[in-house]
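Z., the sequence and structure:
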Amino acid sequence: MALPEIGDDVGLRGAELQWVITAYCVAGCTFATAAVPLTAAVVAAARAGEPHLHLRRMSLLEQVQRDARDAMKAGERERMHALRLIVSELQKAAKDDGGDEIQVLQRERKRRLEAAEAYRDGGRPDAAAAEEREAEIIASYLPAQLSDEELDAIVGDAVAESGASSPSEMGKVMGLIMPKVQGRADGKRVSALVREKLTA
């Protein structure tokens, strides 16, 4: 497997799977690092130790920082601004309490959508559209959303497992569901479906 040169850009963008592959010389010095898509060839080379490769998954923060640099190089000012704000929030969460990155993105997306609604109600459609574009950028880093059928199956299993039979027991059911759907289904969407099943 040919090793990447320092600074090579051979990775994927957004929420697609990225890994950081680092090649070490025998003495342990780093001589090449690059982000790469996880392929069978990459895994085989890393497992075979060719030569002294270390493979780890790229963090979400690293992905966003990388994309922010790419946006700056491409002159995409609006995208660069949005990504820098995301980077700032992710870094703040990591520094304060090691907060979950997905929860940070969900919170920031919700803020943009709420701001967009407020701007639209205030007769400022251009500002609303800008907020919605930022929300779309943030959404591109979130896991793919569960389909209605997938979520219905998860909720049904949780209701059965919990033994809940009335809306007063929603908390018990939600406690089983949310860890399983984290980042893949909005809490309001989940609670609405749980309530529907417990009142049927």
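The CA atoms of residues 3 and 112 lie 41 Å apart. The chain has three domains: 1-58, 61-139, 148-199.

Let me know what you think.
H.
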